[in-house]
Amino acid sequence: MNKKIPKYLLGKYQLLGTVTFSILFALVFLNLYIPFSDTAWFGLGRSVNFLFTAGFMFLALLVLVASRVVMFKTQDMFDMTYLEYVLWCLGEVFLICILYTFVTVDVMHSSESSMHVFIRALLYGMIALVIPYIISGMFIAIVEKNRTIRLMRCQSKAEDHSGSGGKPESQLTFFDNNGALKFSVSSSDLYYIESDDNYINLWYSDRKGNLKMYMIRCRLKTVEDSFKGSPLLRCHRKYIVNMARAQVLRKEKEGYFIDLDKEQIDPIPVSKTYADSIIGFFSRGSRTGV
Question: pTM (2 decimals)?
Answer without folding.
Answer: 0.53
